[in-house]
Amino acid sequence: MAFDVSLPARGTTVRTVLAASAPEDAALLIPVAQGEDGIEVPVTALAPRGLLEALVAVGAKGTEGEVTRLLLDGHLVLAFGLGDAADIDDEAVRRGAGAAARALNGVEHAAVSTEFGAGAVVEGLLLGGYVYNGLKSRAETLDEDNPDEELPQTTEVSVVGADDAAREAFERAVIVAESVNLARDLVNTPANFLYPESYAGVMGEVAQAAGLDVEVFDEAQLEQAGFGGILAVGRGSARPPRLVHLSWAPEGASRSVALVGKGITFDTGGISLKPGSGMEDMISDMGGSAAQLAALAAIARLGLGVRVDAWLPLAENMPSGSATRPGDVITHYGGITSEVINTDAEGRLVLADAIARACEDAPGYLIETATLTGAQLVALGARTAGVMGSDELRDLVADAGRTVGEQAWAMPLLEEQEDELKSPIADIRNTHNARTGGMLFAGLYLSRFVPEDVEWAHIDVAGPAWNGGGAHGYTPKRATGAPVRTVVEAVTRLAG
């Protein structure tokens, strides 16, 4: 099922079908590895005779990311490297298949076997094959002056493996990958097309397709209910904020999980204005909400037996005469007051409201994610998320991320920052104006809105949600879709 939503442009990827055998005219995708004595061709039913010798002759190594094209016995062969033969795991297969998918432009049909697992292969193909050309007027053709421009994907890949286990893994991988690519589409969409009101409309379309219930709070309802943080952030924009509640409530569910995701559709920094250089990438500041929406859609399509409620606050952070100022005091949903020190620390203001409302329903667990702090990149780099919260759930979420290939690391909440959280005129303040521990301070701020009896985890994906460099493995340029797969895996474990 492809999500049919009202976006001005969508990404493309390869199409995958489960098949008993490879089509006659199919290009063959063959995994290879780096062994002690050179390149190795692992056992696969699709490998043509003489492949190893041909690969040695052209100097192929089998290293991660390497794709070697050969013509053997009338078949186009794309040998994709898995890296060290002793270290092959699902992530190596995903990355290798992703690299292979990017090499398929111009290939009508291809085939791959499932000796290394249907799930990892399919995820790698569908995620690695993703191409987003946006609103280019000539997206169908390559510009000779721009060799980095990518063609839309049109390849159909037959995944050869017809047993029940392969079929189940195939179907799950397709569902998860489609959700990741939906999140990518949302994050890649320019902010003049995706703003709180239109974004809430798209969420309604996803909800209808996935069988979710949906409720949208407009600015009047937010004011009446006392969502002071969401209103404060949205106050400077001509496009008013929204809060979207989506729910999946299967019969017999004994556990409940709340999902919260930051939905700042564009972030200028507000009155505390960001530098102009690179500000265009701030379309990605709604990546947390996109990930939670997409994860919930996958959870519903997978039929997980756990109740899940997502609370997604949407706002545009703009400077204007009506914008919130540094020094203002706001009242969050539930009554906690906060002194705004820096209006560019706006994500925690909207998240606090959504967390407080989500916890009102007494969920057993709460997982929240956001592109929250530049300090996350300083601490952990561009590809590893920081996870904070209750010890047990924090560690479960971090392990879930590492299991699916979305790198994550458990981080502490620091006792010594408690005093830094205090304000002379409010209950708390939204920043500590220090260069140290900024990611951890944001997590500590959010902890004030979580009751002691709710297990919770905060995932900071400021780096992992956006790839400002070249494609690698199954990760494309721009929006990555992180941490959709982490959340789906974590909720799967919680569902039991």
Explained architecture:
The structure is a single chain. The protein is α/β, with parallel strands linked by helices. It has two domains: 15-179, Leucine Aminopeptidase, subunit E, domain 1 (3-Layer(aba) Sandwich), CATH 3.40.220.10; 194-495, Aminopeptidase. 32% of the residues lie in helices and 22% in strands. It has helices spanning 51-57, 90-102, 118-128, 164-188, 196-210, 219-225, 228-234, 287-302, 347-359, 374-380, 391-404, 418-421, 438-447, 484-495, and strands spanning 15-19, 27-35, 38-40, 67-72, 75-84, 109-113, 156-160, 213-217, 242-248, 256-261, 263-267, 307-317, 329-331, 337-339, 365-370, 385-389, 408-410, 428-429, 455-460, 466-467, 478-479. The strands form four sheets. Strands 8, 9, 10, 11, 12, 15, 16, 17 and 19 form a nine-stranded mixed beta sheet that branches.
Mean pLDDT: 95
CATH hierarchy: architecture of the largest domain: 3-Layer(aba) Sandwich
Count of DSSP H/I helices: 14
Shape: elongated
Could you give the topology of this structure?
Blueprint: E1 15-19, E2 27-35, E3 38-40, H1 51-57, E4 67-72, E5 75-84, H2 90-102, E6 109-113, H3 118-128, E7 156-160, H4 164-188, H5 196-210, E8 213-217, H6 219-225, H7 228-234, E9 242-248, E10 256-261, E11 263-267, H8 287-302, E12 307-317, E13 329-331, E14 337-339, H9 347-359, E15 365-370, H10 374-380, E16 385-389, H11 391-404, E17 408-410, H12 418-421, E18 428-429, H13 438-447, E19 455-460, E20 466-467, E21 478-479, H14 484-495
Parallel strand pairs: 1-7, 2-5, 2-6, 6-7, 10-12, 10-15, 11-12, 14-18, 15-19, 16-17
Antiparallel strand pairs: 2-3, 4-5, 8-9, 9-12, 13-14, 16-19, 20-21
Helix pairs in contact: 2-3, 3-4, 4-8, 5-8, 7-9, 8-14, 11-14
